[in-house]
User: What shape does this take?
Amino acid sequence: MQSRYRFRLYLLTAIILSGAGTLLSRLYDYQIVDTEYYRKLIPGETTISIRDPGVRGTIVDRNGELLAKNLRNYELVLNLDEIHHEWERQHSENQNPGRRRIGMAVPTSERSREIVRIVKEGIVPRLQKHGIEPRYSSEALQKHYVTHGGLIPFTFPVDLTYQQFARLAEHNLEMAGVYVTVRPRRRYPYGTLACHLLGYLKQWEKGDIPDKAKSKYDHYLGDAVGSTGVEATMDDYLRGSPGRRVLRKNEKGRILGEVLNERVAPDQGSQVMLTIDARAQFLVENVLRKAGRAAAVVIDVNTGEILAMASVPNYNPNEFIPSIAGSKWEDYKTNKADPLINRAISSFTPGSTFKLPTSIAACMHNMGDFGHSCAGHLRFGRTGKLKIRCWKTVGHGPLIMTNAIQRSCNPYFMQLSNELGASRMTEAFGMLNLGQPTGIKLPVEDRGIIPGSRWWRRELHPGESMTPARMAMLAIGQDECEATPLQLAALTACIANGGKYYRPRIIKMVVDPKEGVLVSDIPELKVDLIAEGMNQKQFEDIRLGMWKAANELGGTARRASPQDVEIGAKTGTAQTTDFGKKSHNAWTVAFAPFEQPRYAIAVVVQNGKSGGKVGGPLVNLIFRGLFASEKGLKLPLRPMGEVVGNFDPIEEIELPEGDLLALAIDEEGETGEEAEEAQLPGGAVRVRPRAIPLPSITPDADSGTPPNRENRRQSN
Assistant: This one.
């Protein structure tokens, strides 16, 4: 009997000990392990951690002129998850106590529809009381809630004045999840000026959020991302380090203040200084407005620094900040003149400008004294039926290199290239960075095409060899040949300075506010032609030929020459196609002054009928402005508007009276038609289309009234 009671006692003791152990274990979980979780379930003060994006660095020209800056922008942001939860707390009797961790729960379709009504009926009327009429997209709000929950606040599309910001900051709309904040907004003060260089920004997306940040912050405000131009290539330098704020809230969601000792201020990104001169850029862009579709590059011949790079048509990068209207984006995309494309780094059929690298190839192999008697054409092929003409059909007669450059004689250079051979030609062209990107700090730079090069043999014509006809076309820049205005400007600079090829640069310096200079201003000499074996005396004949082209009777580039400055120049008129129709590219490359040169220029005009008549006057005007600036004239600088471009053929660009040389101009130069019979099957290669980065597009506003499904189907 006693043993039975003892067993019961032991059993009871075991049960009590087991229960006590379980209780102690749970208490440990509640009090130690999960203390933060249960603390947040207690009505009272809570804190919210907010990530503040870094302040983007500025972009300035070589003289410190601001080209991209930041303005203070007052924003209204909504934490949709908080708003919905507070609404549930106030309206549902069966609401469970406590609140979910912001951003952790994925809203259901029912909850996402509710949030549209809650904002429309609960938030908008309170904004209207403060004189604010928001126009927003309910579809965008609903999609944002489904995608991001509470992790990423929804920025209300309202630009607040400082007075509105102050009132809202004071009242906070008496509703949880509504915040006002100050954020920097990008601004390009000169409108379209240098738009293809600067580029534009795109808003950050959910995929940009690191996993660690999701657990570290309740609200995540990301950094805008450079999408094109220098904004894209220098994005890592321009982005500032993020900051952090911690706010105190009561149980009703009202902000009580900031926990100041936990505040980390965001840092400013580095300042990027470009090599361009904003006033020279304004000059060049203004000059190019005389053409429908064109590009120009001005380069310092002694350093490789780009002083101006312009392309028309253009666009306004401010349209993309913070997001671009759908209708405006559609206008840009459907404009066949491609305003978003930077033509200065796009490749075009170069025409007779390729007679310059052909001349350099000859001087590299001691053939600068080559002579040829031009009879008006050369014949190719086994039967000799393939005829490539000179623009002067009766022929130029006996020529040496200097006169051949002056008169832009096709047969001279066609014969010279065949004497040199494919290997020597392509080697010299490659040394001059033709057929490969220059490496400038801009995205999607075209490489160009050099027939006979390794890339050409590998990618375009595997197993094929260069025929005499193809060699002839390479020398005169026709058929598959392509080059960019930047490549030809750098080539012209190399000729101007005596044979030193400097890699073109658009970034002059990068300076961090704390660490100092991160990128230094150091010219990069890619090759010295004289050191590589160039015959220096023969090389001077190339420069002399360009001088004669611009200054003597019979020269094809005389319209490029200003009255008071001697220059060297070369024109080109290339036959090509434009949307399936026969067209031309009008080129002029030049350097000045002829003695001790400082500037090299390359200009191309699409659908320009003559290099000398179209490109030449544009170069003339650019030189006039540059040298007037050197004499003390302050070139203008002000905001510029958009140029939509056109497809009108341009026969000639007239200079103002008094700008032309007093001597008669009796020779017009090549027309681009001379090689028409020799165009190989398939015709000239057009500039290849490229993918344009998709920007942040502003959703169409419906002021909280989403279109019904039937309307949506009809609109689709």
